[in-house]
Amino acid sequence: MSKVSNAIAGLKSRLTIGDEGLIRMLPFAIWLSFLALISIYSSHRADQKVHDIDKLSDTRQTLEAEHTETREKLTKLSLESRVLSKAKAAGLISPNQRPEKIIVQK
């Protein structure tokens, strides 16, 4: 039993860290803490960028839908039959002859 207790005592003495050991390991612990903080910060920034991209994507989809809707309205309004009906309502008539092309020479 003395061999076992001697082995346990030896192991215990090797595993205990004294004041000198703590001071010696302090810069490494600070370095690891600094790296952990950088990792956490990078993770939060990446999450924030993902949320920003999602918001911008929603805005883009909304604007695309609005653009498509406006283009369809313009196409419907610019049909010749609609233009003629609005012109008649305003008291205008369509000409019987085509207009002549004017060419300016220098």
Can you describe this structure?
The chain has 3 helices and no strands. The protein is mainly alpha-helical.
Termini separation: 120 Å
The helix content, as a percent range, equals: over 70%
Strand segment count = 0
SSE string: HHH
Give the amount of beta strand, in percent: under 5%
The secondary-structure class comes to mainly alpha
So how many helices?
3
Compute the gyration radius: what is it?
Answer: 41 Å
Largest sheet: none
- Stretches where pLDDT is under 50 for at least 5 consecutive residues are none
Mean pLDDT: 88
- The gross shape turns out to be rod-shaped
Compose a concise summary of this entry:
With about 110 residues, the protein is mainly α. The chain has 3 helices and no strands. The chain is about 80% helix and about 0% strand.
Features of the shown structure:
single chain; 106 residues; mainly alpha; 3 helices
Q: How are the secondary structure elements laid out?
A:
Layout lengths: L1 H14 L3 H59 L2 H10 L17
